[in-house]
Structures are given as C-alpha cells and as structure tokens.
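Worked example

This section walks through a single chain of length 305. The input is the sequence exactly as stored; nothing has been trimmed or padded.
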Amino acid sequence: MEIRALRYFLAVAQTGHMTRAAERLGIQQPPLSVQIKALERELGMVLFRRHPRGVALTDAGRAFLGEAQRLLHDMEAMRERMARVARGQAGMLAVGFTSSAAAHRFMPEALRAFRRTHPDVELRISENNAAEITAALAAGRLHCGLLRMPVAAPPGLVFETLLREPVLAATPSDHRFAAPGRSRRALPLARLCEEPLILVRRPGAPGLYAELLALCHARGLRPRVVAEVERMMTNLNLVAAGVGLSVVPASMAGVHAHAIAYLPLADGGALDAPLTLASRAEEDNLPAQRFAGLLRELAAREVRR
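Given that input, the structure is written out below as tokens.
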C-alpha cells in the first residue's frame, strides 16, 4: 500500500466528492477514481458509497479513516524527526571522559552549552580510562572522547589538543611537604622522587606519567613507584589514604581537599597536562561534529581568558 493512496483516500473522505478531492490534490478526477478503486480491491472492502452529490464513507471506510490518519501523522512526524537528525539537531551522541578530563571546569560548561543548543540530542556520557575510551572509539561505541594524553593511536582516530594546564604534586595533607609555612612552596622534582609515588598509566604506553618518568630519568633521578592504577580518582584516593604522592593536572586540585595538599612543582616546567579531543577521522554523526566544533570554540575562548 502506497502512502500516496492514503493521501488520496483522506482527500476524498474530507471533501466527500471525487472532483473536489482531485482539485485539492492537483490531479484529474478519473485517475483519482482509479486509485480509490485499486485501494478498495487491495483492502478487500468498499470504502465509499457513491451518490449523486458525491461520496460518503461506509462503516469500513470510517474504520479505515482513523488508521489512515494515524499512519499519515506518524509518517509526517518521522519525516520531521529525520529532518532534525539530518540537520544535527536530533539523534544520539555518545561521549567518553576520563575522570581528570571531566574534572576540568571547561567540560561542564561545554556540556551545558551543547544541551542549550541541541536539547533534542540524547547525550550518553560514560567514564573510562584513556585506553578504554580509545578502544571504544575505534570500535564505534563512542562518537568522541575527552582524555589527557593518548595511550594508543589506532588507524582512523584523530587526537586534537584543546587546552594545556600545569601539573601539581599531590601529597597527603599530613605529609611534611604540606606543613604550615611549606605548603605553598614549590616542590623540587628530586624531593618528589624520594617519596613513594603512585602513577596512573598503562604500562609501556605514553602519557603524562610516562613523561614524568622520562623527565626524572633524564635528570638522573630514580622515582620510587609503589603503585600503578588505571584511574585518576583511584590515584587520589590512595594519596588521601597516605599510600604515596603523585602528580595531577591542576584542575584536579580540590579533590579530597580535607586530605590532600596540592603543591606546584619547582622544576616540572617540561610537564603539562593537555586536554585532548579524540574522535574518528571520518565521523558522520552530525551531533558529534557539532559538539567537536563547540569544544574548539570554547577552548579558544578559554585560552584568551
């Protein structure tokens, strides 16, 4: 059954007259009559009673009228939804964050701005480490991801640095480095390496903590690593528990403020923490494209502040 046949039927039912319905539809009356008879044969029922002044719906025709109106309404609604999808104003956007990326003040601002401009896009947000986000992007389970430093570069993925920020040393609040009078002093890298260190990294992969180790080794320092974890929040939980010290992006300062002191690094200028947008090079999801554009715009504004 063609949608056109339903529209023809509805026009005849509303006008009660074949000729007037044909005029409304912009066709000739004989082809319209042929189409209505073909629809009746297809349904196996008589839809109209013919009389000298026009036509009237039969009981079967009245029953079919409700179904036809519903189908046409649903079709128009579907067309409108698909038009909004085609314009990037509807659909679904799956975004992955690392915990340290989500902690940056830039991210809530970006999500709020996107929700304001794209209220009909369904946002699916998940939190994982950088390796899991990268794998999910490559597999098509995410449209984009926000992380710090890439730990892998599968073919077809693009990594774009949006922002950079300094790193801070994180130490238990009862540590001697956090004592009154010293808590605002910059901590030398050599002193940090004398303490038990907690790293967030995938062994053998690049990243902030791999760069920290490389910097230490380049300066002849031997860091004492006591734990390697997968997520930044696990890292800070261990610091708060007194297991060791770590370094974190400056935007993480304030997490467990009652139990952790955050200190600048005296000679860690070669270290910084990027905020990286990971996406597919051939991404065809329009909401994802719009979100990436918004992130670039807001990042440029953040740099100008």
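What to look for: The domain at 3-86 is CATH 1.10.10.10 (Arc Repressor Mutant, subunit A).
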